[in-house]
# Entry
Amino acid sequence: LEREKDFVGAKQAYETAITNGGYFLAYENLAQILLFHESTASAVLFSQNALKIFPNNARLWQIYSLAQYFSGSFAEATAAAQRAYFLSPNQQNTYIFSRLSQNLPLEVIK
# Structure
């Protein structure tokens, strides 16, 4: 559904998956849909709660960082980016953490 750009349907499917089994990927995908297709505030809140369940999930930390960045909470965004980077120093996390720690803007396609 997400690949077909049916974000409403995808959101519902991820919510069902979370209710039925709590699979971490459903949390990651739902957080991303909230961030890029709904509201920053809902992405912040959902990611925050998801991180209580999966505190070592680098992708959730990355999404939380971006949500905080888009909402103007730069210190929180940087701290979350650092956590994502330390958990998984991949190219995306390195870019986000590097830019935020230097007080440079992110170039993210939203």
